[in-house]
Amino acid sequence: MSRFVAAASLDEALAALASGEAKVLAGGTDLMVQLRRARLAGDELPAELVDVNAVPELTRLELEGSEPYLGAGLTFHNLGSAPQVQAKYPLLAQAAATVGSVQVRHTATIGGNVANASPAADGLSALVALNAVAHIASGQGRRQCPLTELITAPNETTLAPDELILGFVLDPLPGSWGQAFYKVGRRQAVSVARLNLAVCLERELKDPRVVLGSCFPTPRRLGDVEELLSGGQPGEELWRKAGAQAASHFTGVCGWRESAVYKVPAIAKGTARALADAWSVLEDQL
Amino acid sequence: MPPNHLEKTGRLEFTLNGQPVSLADVPGEASLLEVLRGRLGLLGSKEGCGVGECGACTVLLEGRAVNSCLTAAWQAAGKRVITIEGLAQGEVLHPLQEAFVQTGAVQCGFCTPGMILAACDLLSKNLRPSDQEIETALAGNLCRCTGYHDILRAVKRAARWIREERP
Fold this sequence. Notes:
Chain A is of the alpha+beta class. Chain A is 41% helix and 22% strand. Chain A has 12 helices and 14 strands. The termini of chain A are far apart. In chain B, strands 2-1-5-3-4 form a 5-stranded mixed sheet.
């Protein structure tokens, strides 16, 4: 049996986590499934569940300025519907809107999505495209860690049991950027992404971002695809080549496994389509 | 009431369908669904999958649709919970319930409570939903009988009744 601790402040949350035997409960949409599985298997439960939903620091959303900040406790409903997220980081708003279902989006949080570190997490791909750096606290102090370093393997992170993700600082993306998020799943809602793509482009194609999710153990930007895009001539031809490169990146890392039969063409076309979508946003601004 | 107070008393207290409830010995890992069905005897909320895929356990927590199988019971502390049992006013069905009955949107009925509460959340914000908005709002609810068509019709019908303030 787990003891339930409703933390009313950050200090209370960190004090409760200090034992190292507690689990953070944010939205609960992953944790409750894990607890259910543990109970059915007769496995040991965490000594305490620390509910962090009432910790004020976790729901801060400040996207202006040089260090745009997103609290870890914001739900996907918050992110998908916040006008400032839609305006500045449409790919994050789009990714948020595809997570789970209305019910799941009402409770599931972006911090939970990161801490759970599913290879198929939609929020992660968007955050990685935005070069997100996690701000993490424990009773010992604070640290910052880029998401690509925080997540080390499927469902594994460098988070210690006493640590809590407070939020994420995102790339301010100065100038105008076109962004797109694209997902392939088996069902419109509650589908674990078979693949997802997060793309950011600016007009000169400097520093393009292409993140392919649900295809690798941990989220990654496709460096070779980004290199191919850099300084290229924007248009269908470039998007098609980038798509082919993304597909070969996938088979290069993962080999030709069964799922490649549909994933390879889906990655190629999905990448081209996400790039075209992101570019069309920029064109609309001309 | 702050959650901490509730925690200190050791009793889980919340408002269920407008009535206060107070329960002793609720373990931290218990889901809201388990407590509703097992402790409070309200069997309207169903457990279909137990992992948030099917929506049959949907309830309203502070007015918002959530999967009660994925919600720790203690997350409801101090809050308002509405289940399918709390929608009708005495003998008078909620417009969504009436519309589901009249439209034939119910076959085996297992998904119906969750469907109706998810629709209830939608209509609380949008009384003129498009087909696509209804589909998005109900996308987390599976029905293996009806083919969804009559469910969409029922939701639109209920929205019209509520707009026209029909009982």
